[in-house]
Amino acid sequence: MPKIKINGKETEVAAGKSVLQACLDNGVFVPHYCWHPGLSPAGNCRMCLVKVSNSRKLEVSCMYPCTEGLEVTTEGPEIADARKDVLEFLLINHPLDCPICDKAGECDLQDFTYAYRQGTSRFVEPKNMRHTKDLGPNIRIWGNRCIACSRCVRFCNEISGTGELALVNRGDRSVVDVFPGVPIDNPLSLNVVDICPVGALIDKNFLYSARVWFAQETETVCASCSRGCSSLLTTLDGVIKRHIARENPDTNKYWMCDEGRLNVRYVSSDKRLKVARGTAGELGAAAQTIVRKHGSGSVAGLVSSYQTIEEIFLFKKLMMALKADSVGVLTQSRGERRTFPGGFVIEADKTPNRAFAEMALGPEAVAQGAGRVVADILAGKVRGLMLLNGIPDFAFPTDLLTAAEKLDFLGVMDIAQSPLSDKAHVLLPGAAWAEKDGTFLNVDRRVQRIRRALPPPGAARPEVELLQRALIELRARERLVSAEGVFREVTKEFAGFSDFDYTDVGVKGVALTS
Amino acid sequence: MTLEFNKQTTDELEALCKRYPKREAALLPALRLLEREFGSVSEEGMKLVARLIGVSPATVYGVVTFYTHYRRPTDGKFMLQVCATVPCALKGGVSLYKHLSGRLGITNGQTTPDGVVTLKKVECLANCDNAPCMQVNDWYYDRLTLPVVDGMIESMRAGTWKPVRMGYNIPKHKYEPVLLKHVLEKDSETIAHYLGRGGYKAAEKALTTLKPADVIDIVKKSGLRGRGGAGFPTGTKWSFVPQASPKPRYLVLNDDESEPGTFKDKMLTERDPHAIIEGAMIAAYAIGSHDIYWYLRGEFPLGAKIAQQAVDEAYARGFLGPNPCGTGYRLDITVHRGAGAYICGEETGLLSSLEGQRGNPKIKPPFPAVEGYFRCPTIVNNVATIASVPLIIANGPEWFRKWGTEKSPGTMIFSVSGHVERPGLFEAPLGIPLRELVFDLAGGVKGGRKLKAVVPGGISSGVLTPEEIDVKMDFDSLAAIKSMLGSAGVTVLDETVCMVDTLWNTLRFFHHESCGQCTPCREGTGWLEKILRRIENGHGRPEDLQLLLDICDGMVGRTICVLADAAAMPTRSIVTKFKAEFEAHIEKKRCPMKGAAAPQPATAGAH
Questions:
Q1: Over 90: is that where the pLDDT of B163 sits?
Q2: Arithmetic mean of pLDDT, A106-131
Q3: Measured between CB atoms, which of A57, A125, A148 is closest to B516?
Q4: Strands B250-255 and B139-141
Q5: What is the mean predicted confidence (pLDDT) over B354-365?
Q6: CATH 1.10.10.1590 intervals, chain B
Q7: What is the pLDDT of residue B598?
């Protein structure tokens, strides 16, 4: 572990780290474009120049190794001049079209230029022109904005392993492109938009849809598979504008899949339920009537592993209050678990909370519970069913649809219209993932938080509220608390949750204690 | 349409792939095979190569567009590549291009409607003593005149065109040649000729009687410095190879001669390839390498053919292969052709290219001797350096020190071009005065005109004024006056030359050749060129002179390799030493020399 000095302050650095990494780890920011913590270094943008004691010249910190006794200076007139020179060079052929650039407001080219006060240009020559075109179904390039940093090319070579992008041509004609007729269309493609330090690569789904400085950003977790990538949800005027990756070394590093980014569209789908039939109290009362009439075991429950820890916990309480012995879990899997060359994983399980469903209701309930509930309905044992589903565009098993015909009572909490919501005696619209607070337990048994980014539509309410109201109606609960309050109850009942609270879970989640 | 290689090409490719540590390294040769079989590099062809090499089509596309040499499907039957870089421009290369452009009715990169001719304006072809020159398909044409090119166009259209092999210029002078001693002898490129003059004895001596460390020691003692441009002591470079490393080691011969004004390596390759092979055997033995790659410029098809023939001969005689000189020390040489990129003459750019990538230079340290080809210890040596090694081993280090100075021993092959009476190659001791080289050896300024400037070491070097030409032609003397010996490409400019135009031409070269990785070089070379174009065309502003120098300040020492410095050095020297010419352009709002003396090719000539 070499000791180095950064701006006079001594620090110990892990062997093999670059000077830039050491600076960033120690809270000393050094501006950079081409370097990205998740990619191999390239050393081409020349922005991260610093002074090191081993060299007369300024050196790029991203590729300079930390050796014992190295003294690094990150600021000073010589360094500032060099960075100003780089910025001037970067801007001479840049279109400066910030007013219509989607990256504006979160662009390193804007920010560093502002920081180094580069207000005027000495460049009076005609600018180079490069292509503006689609590179794939979701990505468009503004070549004139490209600074040829090669981050996107390295991503496709090192992380997705798909290699669709290359820098083509030479010198100041260089620009990112795809092979003619071979678009960038891999499951991780939109990461290149996240990591583009300028506005060259743009997500067509986000194009011209929001000025980021007017939008809100919510730190949440993607619910599209059981990995639970940390993510950032951008909303404006109550509408989701985009869903992008957020750094988390323990789950997704810096990446996220396109499916996770794009399937948030279901939140604003036309099929969302906005009108209730009945209340949570009536839901509880109606179910209790069945139990009184037909005895314990006559009401069963189905809950999806798309629901939060808090919701599954309360659903279990509701089932206990209704003396149910048949509880099943609705899940959704698709394809195989896929590991990419860079280590990124997309799980086959397309729900975010299967791990907690197994913990709370037992592996059997997850594996065979739903089938058993159907069988019990068909056998006439179960007369009433409580359904809590939040899986987007869920295809209910046909035998369940058939069996539902036989029920005396069907209570449904769901987010979108379905054959079962049509049949429900009591129907309570629920809140989608983006509309509520809660936690998921991911495939690695890591508790992670989702946060409310927008209100649920119409009469829809977060299910923690609906379930608590039903429990209060059944006198199985005294008062209504927040999702955080419910979580505190969960931690008392389930091993591994220790005495975590929402603060402990934080924005990066926390692993269950064994 | 999906393309497939025929059986022969497929076998050839498979054999080629085995010669490289990784399959992807065979990308450039595979593209050559594609061109050979299908006539051009098409999109379908790139897909085929991508599939066979095991990289993505986009990677192949990035590589193909980095280099300038691959033939496109739309290119004509004859590819006319007219050199327009400084040494040729001085002799009318630009005017020749314009003449052809007018006559054919096409501009740069275009093809005549009948599909016969494609015209390209290209950068230096390393044939500067025969300026103006052009390359037609694989063939060089020297000292062109307008009637000759007109006749060539006619014969191409009539289908009667035949290639003509051109000659070499090695004027006789007072110094006895060492490296160039035999190059003009008949069949000097054959192994029979080479053996007849004692060839391969030095290799035998080194491999059978000397330890690798002894060889390094002898080369160190000789003081041999790299002939490719940097002048780094060769023996010292060899000693940087980590002895304990378990990784394979590589020797790479840099025959990517592309510094405008330099044409010595082409001569050695075409006329004395066995000297290079023998030197490579000794060098590889010294550094513990078994695998040698001979990287030739894409523009040297004849050189590549001769190099391959020589390598084949050396295999046949057992100098290469599993048992050279009965020692069991395996030695393999693979001839590898580039595809048109100046930057591949830079050793790390060359290694990237040899790995099958765009020729982007790599950050040093680590230096190639420690981490080079595919991150293994690698020594990259210029072929003229390598060709000196057998002589040093055969005759001893003291013999080598008979010539030159204490710090720059030996002879140097000076390439002299431009406005001199006798352009050509002059082998002379390092340290001779530039004045002697120009006025004595090369016969002085052509036509008795006045000297205006001399480029002493390829166009990357700082330009010298007539007052500075008493400088000694060695590494340190030139460095002391902020220029460099470089690859010893000496270009002489007479009083008719416009220095603004010359700098514009120089910067057009660097703009064209910058790999585009590093911001200051990618943007700076283009910016400099655009300013020069503006000044030359009468739109200069007084503040441009300071701006040019400021841009240079932002480039020098701020990039991965020294191409940015190479563009800045001539800019700084010309702007400061010939300031009055810039001011005249700006004041008069035009080039004061234009029209009067734009260099023209001869209207009639000897061919």
A1: no
A2: 92
A3: A148
A4: unpaired
A5: 96
A6: 7-66
A7: 58
Residue B292 contacts A, CB cutoff 8 Å: no
Percentage of chain B modeled with pLDDT above 70:
98
The residue count for chain A? 514
pLDDT at B367 over 80: yes
The domain B411-494: what is its CATH number? Answer: 3.10.20.600
Contacts of B525 in chain A (CB under 8 A): 171-172
ipTM above 0.85, yes or no: yes
From CA B463, how far away is CA B457, in angstroms rounded?
9
Query: In which residue ranges of chain B is CATH 3.40.50.11540 found?
Result: 191-400
Q: Tokens at residue A498, please?
A: 């220790």
**Model pTM score:** 0.95
A407 close to A383: Cβ distance less than 8 angstroms: yes
User: Which residues in chain B have their CB less than 8 angstroms from residue A168's CB?
Assistant: 61-62, 65-66
Contacts of B266 (CB under 8 A, 6+ apart): B126, B127, B257, B297, B300, B303
Taking residues A87-103, what's their average pLDDT? 96
Q: Which residue of A has its CA nearest to B556?
A: A57
Domain B7-66: assigned CATH number: 1.10.10.1590
Q: Do B526 and A164 touch (CB under 8 A)?
A: no
Which tens digits make up the pLDDT trace of B120-161? 999 999 999 999 999 999 999 999 999 999 999 999 999 999
Backbone angles phi, psi at B584, to 5 degrees: -65, -40
Q: How far apart, in whole angstroms, are the C-alpha atoms of residue A425 and residue A278?
A: 8
Tell me: domain B499-588, CATH 1.10.3720.10, correct? no
Tell if the CB–CB gap between A148 and B517 is shorter than 8 Å. yes
CA distance A168 to chain B (A): 4
Name the architecture of domain B191-400: 3-Layer(aba) Sandwich (3.40)
**In this structure, are strands A384-388 and A299-304 parallel, antiparallel, or unpaired?**
parallel
CA angle A414, A417, A423 (to 5 degrees): 85
Question: Where do the DSSP E strands lie in A109-210?
Answer: 132-134, 139-142, 165-168, 175-178, 201-203
Q: What is the mean pLDDT of residues A365-394?
A: 96
Q: Tell me what the mean pLDDT of segment A333-356 comes to.
A: 97
**Token pair in block for residue A200:** 């060259």
DSSP-derived 3-state class of residue B237:
helix
Under 8 Å between Cβ of B200 and B310: no
**Helices B57-66, A151-158: crossing angle, 10 deg rounding:** 140
Q: How far is B551 from chain A (nearest CA, A)?
A: 8
Nearest to B62 among A88, A162, A167 (CB): A167
Q: How far apart are CA A3 and CA B462, in angstroms?
A: 42
The angle at the Cα of B532, spanning B528 to B533, to the nearest 5 degrees, equals 115
A173 and B516 in contact by Cβ < 8 A?
yes
Distance from CA of A266 to the nearest CA of B (A): 34
Radius of gyration over alpha carbons of chain A, in Å?
A: 27
Say if the Cβ atoms of A171 and B513 lie within 8 Å. yes
Q: Report the CATH fold assignment for B78-158.
A: Glutaredoxin (3.40.30)
The pair of structure tokens assigned to B566 is: 């190479």
The torsion angle over the Cα atoms of residues A493, A499, A501 and A503, rounded to 10 degrees, is: -160
Instruction: Indicate the helix (H) or strand (E) that contains B296.
Output: strand B291-296
Nearest to B345 by CA among B284, B270, B281, B266: B266
Supply the pLDDT for residue B607: 41
pLDDT tens-digit readout, B242-258 = 988 899 999 999 999 99
Q: Is A26 exposed, middle or buried (0-12, 13-18, 19+ CB in 10 A)?
A: middle
Q: Please name the residues between 481 and 510 in chain B that touch chain A, using a CB distance below 8 Å.
A: none
| Option in A89, A125, A180 nearest B43 (CB) | A180
CA distances from A412 to A316, A466, B291, B339 (A): 15, 11, 73, 69
With 70 as the cut, is the pLDDT of residue A146 above it? Answer: yes
Tens digits of residue pLDDT in A404-423: 999 999 999 999 999 999 99
